[in-house]
Amino acid sequence: MIKIINLSKYFGKTRILNNINLEVEQGEIITLIGTSGCGKSTLLKCIDGLEKPSSGKIYIDNIDITSKNTNLNQIRTRLGIVFQQFNLFPHMTVKQNITLAPIKVKEMSKNEAEFVAMELLEKVGLLDKINKYPDELSGGQAQRVAIARSLAMKPDIMLFDEPTSALDPQMTMEVLDTLKNLAQDGMTMIVVTHEMKFAKEVANRIILMSHGEIIEQNNPTEFFDNPQKQITKDFLESVNL
User: What's the pLDDT band for 240 if we cut at 50, 70, 90?
Assistant: First the structure.
């Protein structure tokens, strides 16, 4: 579904990503972990087309999204991305936030978009907030609305960039439970996270990044119980695992 070949990214002379090679299969759940500044978020942005790679290729279902001949906007309708900050439109209700893009981008009828919004809000446990404004929501609720908004575009792949980093423990659990439900539904996901317990429970594969490189990747049992690289061992010790 996703294939990344020799991907590198520079900002000026600073190398952020170095020769990344990665494949993600349909329905797979990948968690990206590592210290801040190791390139995790930049990798997600390159996959979504928000950042242009300095070199290398990214394929989504065999379509080279780095090619100048590719309609990137069309490809991005198949990708949902949720950031640390919720980025909801403050002057719009929850329903309006969720229905805006399906109506404008996918030319969905208003009635259909509102039906989808109701379905998704019920899925994330927030149907009763459909007519509320963002400033009337808790942080966890706002992040779940942001997830519903991305799902309203009916993406094939969801990208999450530390979706719980700005939340307190209770709100974090609300959002992680939503991601677990998506995993059970078979959604293909790449999740940048510092939540090791979540990674251990949900991921098919855990990837440790350091200094813009993939250091080690494995299934959760092998990754946590039998790390192969010293960098991995040191990282796990630093997070008390």
Answer: confident
Q: Say how far apart CA 126 and CA 109 lie, in whole Å.
A: 22
User: What would you report as the CA-atom Rg of the chain, rounded to the nearest whole angstrom?
Assistant: 18
CB 196 within 8 A of CB 215: no
Helix 139-151 and helix 94-104: axis angle, to 10°?
A: 20
Quickly list DSSP for 153-205. Answer: T--SEEEEESTTTTS-HHHHHHHHHHHHHHHHTT-EEEEE-S-HHHHHHH-SE
Q: Which two tokens stand for residue 75?
A: 């490809």
Beta strand pairing status for 29-33 and 205-210? parallel
pLDDT band at residue 241, thresholds of 50, 70 and 90? low
Length of the chain counted residue by residue: 241
- With beta carbons less than 8 A apart as the criterion, state whether 229 and 32 touch: no
Query: What are the tens digits of pLDDT across the range 61-97?
Result: 999 999 989 988 888 888 999 988 878 999 999 999 9
Sign of the C-alpha dihedral computed for residues 155, 24, 37 and 42 taken in this order: negative
Taking Cα atoms as reference points, which of 204, 173, 241 lies closest to residue 26? Answer: 204
DSSP state of 125: T
Which tokens sit at 170? 């209770």
